[in-house]
Amino acid sequence: MILYSTKHQSKPASLEKAVLKGLAEDGGLYMPEKIPQLTANFFENISKLSFQEIAFIVSKALIGEDIGDNDLKKIINQAIDFDAPLVKLEDKIYSLELFHGPTLAFKDFGARFMSRLMGHFLKEKNQQTLILAATSGDTGSAVAHGFFQVPNIKVAILYPSGKVSHLQEQQMTTMGGNITAFEVNGSFDDCQAMVKAAFMDQTLHKLNLSSANSINISRLIPQTFYYFYAYAQLQKQGVRKAPIFSVPSGNFGNLTAGVIAHKMGLPVSKFIAATNANDTFPIFMRTGNYQPKPSVKTIANAMDVGAPSNFARLLDIFGSKEEMEKMIWSQSFSDQEITACIKKVRSEDGYTLDPHGAVAYLGIKAYNQDDTASILLETAHPAKFLDVEIPERLAKYAKLEKKSIKIGNSIQDLKKALI
Ligand SMILES: *Cc1c(COP(=O)(O)O)cnc(C)c1O
Questions:
Q1: Residues 321, 348 within the same domain
Q2: pLDDT tens digit sequence for 205-224
Q3: Which 3 state secondary structure label does DSSP give 3?
Q4: How far apart are alpha carbons 341 and 349 in whole angstroms?
Q5: Nearest ligand 1 atom, CA 249
Q6: What would the pLDDT profile of 78-103 be if each residue is shown by its tens digit?
Q7: Residue among 95, 98, 106 to mutate when testing ligand 1 (max atoms within 8 A of CB)
Q8: Domain range for 139
């Protein structure tokens, strides 16, 4: 796979380079030069395939030139060792449950696949790397878990002090080993800006920095798998028409992966980009003005992003807002709407949505097209945010001792801490 930078200044890169570097030298995001097409035969038989079989076929089409079949199979079987069931909530409304991984959030898919793909390339080159990741909550815990004890890799996670949930913080700060947590006196946007600045800083080159945020292309690859798998499960239920996918969006990595799946041939009638009060993207879709702004705190806090990092990729794929509109519809929802929605769905459907899934559900209702099935991406287990029973694989973190390093919110603070 050859990848170009969305800023078009850096030279095209190999998959290995894009995965190990994360961000291109010109500050752009890597995108595949060609998006491969899957065969009609694949889609006809998709309902007979397992999740892992689908993942293998999709990833082989994308990155089969760069990695042998056996290594790819091994990575998939280790990384994607949990299910993503499609659950019917109402007539024509389904929930794709992406929270059955170890940290109960969909970011497990990206983190687990990326860590093993990086490990594969580092082993080939006999190199070490330091992963720098900014998190508003879920990325950090998924990355800490995904990379824990992977040889040749150290991880530094930056999170905004006091702005992540207690359990999210516990998951990032209690693992130890090759995982270090920096507690930043600032916002998530500060953390993201510090990480970006660190990558541009010449004096940090010797640390061989690498990225694990949704800017890394290797996170998008496994996130395409479950769009195909959702379609397979719909086929099994006899639903033939191309579905609508409603994606609760923050940095828009999940949505970008869906668009890539669609470009590979997956039938999709529309993507709904549902956001919380952080409405930079819906405003762009209404006005054509892209105006990043500071994030605001909401109860769907893993999507508290005012400057979505994958916007550059989306714009590059579509070329213009007009082209985007053909495939994407977008709306933002307030905390009150989210809270009311969780109550309503719990009482009417007997299903507990988490705040992020609720944003996606609200998107489906607001878009209001019921000539085909709509699938909401349920990105986190409700126990992560609401007062429902916490599964043991998460609860165990609450009892462990927090170990974080407190730092200020400037690049100088980060440099001092790293060197
Ligand atoms: C990160 C996250 C999102 C947003 O995903 P993006 O790819 O950043 O748009 C939604 N829900 C949950 C639970 C998340 O952790």
A1: yes
A2: 899 888 776 688 999 999 99
A3: strand
A4: 11
A5: 9
A6: 999 999 999 999 999 999 999 999 88
A7: 106
A8: 108-216+399-418
